[in-house]
Every structure is written in structure tokens, then in C-alpha cells.
Design a protein that fits this description.
With about 290 residues, the chain is of the alpha/beta class. It is built from ten helices and twelve strands. It has one domain (about 1-225): 4-Layer Sandwich (Metallo-beta-lactamase, Chain A). Helix 6 (about 195-205) runs antiparallel to helix 7 (about 225-245) and helix 7 packs across helix 10.
């Protein structure tokens, strides 16, 4: 499936050390977010980790070649095995480690559409990499003394997004429903939309208080204020692109108008350039 390969490829290409898929140079950085909860950053999406007496609970797992490094990082904070892996969506930089973890006995959990998309992948997804537990709207884990609430927001990054809320610790792992401080990648081919992306961010902002800690899919640990900044930026993008559409401009003319010029210095990055954001917004807003 083209979109799963593209999504993984953009993260690899965005990291100089991975330009030739040389995962040997990747280091896994472990950051404690709260007692028993960590963020692991390496290549691909940020990993969330809950540890305690019940065992390790992992949110996303990056790429298969990094599995041993990820397990080594986990071993520095717990001697318990990984019991659950929650995929926030189906892209390869978040699900690439499913197979080795599944083979080791971890139970993989995801939205219904994640399993469906992985099953349809052209390259074929090994059975061990498929979610064995799926949900449509919400599910809750009572694990390591925590209530871990998982919900599917309005289609944002994809049609299988999951957001994970550690209620007692006031921590939210947003997967790629948040790219902190940068334009988001919205996978329209996989059901994502600009409208849904804004709505998803708004749903989290309405749910949390000012002291919440956000683990984004990509970028540093963030805050509610960072969510609100992303909402304001994306609303501005929507307003500007919709105005061009209403004027009758086609996609190429909209790109040529450079409507996001003043935003690009702050929000553009290697993959989602100003042009890419214009094209994404245009396609999303004109989709039937």
C-alpha cells in the first residue's frame, strides 16, 4: 500500500543518519515523563512506555531493525516483558516493530482500520505483526495502576488514529494526530483530512487542563498551549486555502499564490514544506 510505504519513507529520508536506511547509527533516547511513564525517541514516531508490576505497555514501536535497541532501552527502566503494544495508526514508522514484538508474545492492539490496512498492504503483513485486539471507538486498559483510556478521534492523520490518555497522570500520547511545532502530514489517501485534524486537536484541548503533558507523534514533549498553537495555525491554513478555492483557483494556481509564505519559517520542515501543506489542504478541502 503506497501510503504506508510513503509514510515510513518520509521519516527515514528526513533523518540524515537514515538516508541509506542505516539504523545502526540510531540511538534511542529515553525521557521520563512521569513516574512509570517514558517517551522513547529514535527514528520514526515517538514511543510511549508504561512500566510497572503488570508489565510493559508500549505505544508504537518504530522500525523492526530498531527492535533490539528499543528493548534495550526498555530494559533500563523495567525487567518486565512487553505485554501490550498499542498502534496509534498503521504507518510503518509506528508499526514496523510489530512483528518481532508479536513473535515475542506481546499483544498488539489498534483501531479496526489499522488491522484492515495492514492486511491489505501490497507487500503483505506477517500474521505476527497484525493487531490481535481491535476497537472501533474507545477502549480502556487498567494497567500498572493506571487508567489508560484510548479513543478514536475524528479521522485526522488517517482513518485509524488512536489517542491515548493516562487519566491519573495527565499525559496524552497523540500519535501523528499531532506533529509538534510543524505542519502535520495528513494522509488523505488513508482517510485523513484537514477538517478532522483540526477537530481531533480540538477534542484533546477540550479534554485536558493546562498542566497536561503531550507526547506528540513527532517532536518534543509538548503542552496544551502547543496544541492550541497548532489549531490556530491549521485554522489559518484552512481559511487561506478556502479563500483561494472560492476565487476559482485550481491547485497549481493556489500553490503559485504562496498563501502560507509568512507561516513557513516557523512551521515548514523537510517533508511538509509550504507547498506540500498548500497541496494537502487544497486536496482535503476539495475532496468529494
Amino acid at each position: 500500500m503506497k501510503s504506508i510505504l510513503y509514510a515510513a519513507a518520509i521519516i527515514v529520508a528526513a533523518t540524515p543518519a537514515l538516508a541509506q536506511s542505516d539504523f545502526s547509527k540510531v540511538e534511542i533516547k529515553t525521557t521520563q515523563v512521569a513516574e512509570g511513564v517514558y517517551m522513547l525517541a529514535g527514528a520514526g514516531g515517538n514511543i510511549g512506555l508504561s512500566v510497572g508490576e503488570d508489565g510493559a505497555f508500549l505505544i508504537d514501536d518504530q522500525f523492526a531493525p530498531l527492535n533490539e535497541k528499543i528493548l534495550a532501552a526498555i530494559a533500563t527502566v523495567t525487567d518486565k516483558p512487553v505485554e501490550f503494544v498499542l498502534n496509534t495508526h498503521y504507518h510503518g514508522d509506528h508499526t514496523g516493530g510489530n512483528e518481532p514484538l508479536g513473535k515475542s508474545g506481546a499483544h498488539i492492539v489498534a483501531h479496526d482500520n489499522v488491522r484492515a490496512r495492514l492486511e491489505k498492504a501490497k507487500a503483505g503483513t506477517p500474521a505476527a505483526a497484525l493487531p490481535v485486539i481491535t476497537f472501533s471507538d474507545t477502549t480502556t486498559f487498567h494497567w500498572n495502576g493506571q487508567e489508560i483510556y484510548v479513543f478514536h478521534p475524528e479521522n485526522a492523520h488517517t482513518d485509524g488514529d488512536a489517542i491515548v490518555y493516562f487519566r491519573h497522570l495527565n499525559i496524552v500520547h497523540m500519535g501523528d494526530a499531532m506533529f509538534s511545532g510543524r505542519y502535520p502530514y495528513i494522509d488523505i489517501a488513508a482517510g485523513g483530512s484537514l477538517k478532522g485534524y483540526i477537530a481531533s486537536l480540538q477534542s484533546v484541548a477540550a479534554m485536558v487542563d493546562d498542566d497536561v503533558t503531550i507526547i506528540p507523534g513527532h517532536g518534543p514533549l509538548s503542552s496544551k498551549a502547543d496544541i492550541e498553537r497548532s489549531i490556530a495555525m491549521l485554522k489559518g491554513v484552512r481559511t487561506r486555502i478556502q479563500a483561494l478555492i472560492d476565487q476559482g483557483l485550481d491547485e497549481e494556481a493556489a500553490v503559485a499564490a504562496d498563501p502560507l509564505a509568512d507561516l513557513n519559517e516557523e512551521w515548514a520542515w523537510q517533508f511538509i514544506t509550504g507547498e506540500k501543506m498548500v497541496r494537502t489542504a487544497y486536496k482535503s478541502l476539495t475532496a468529494k
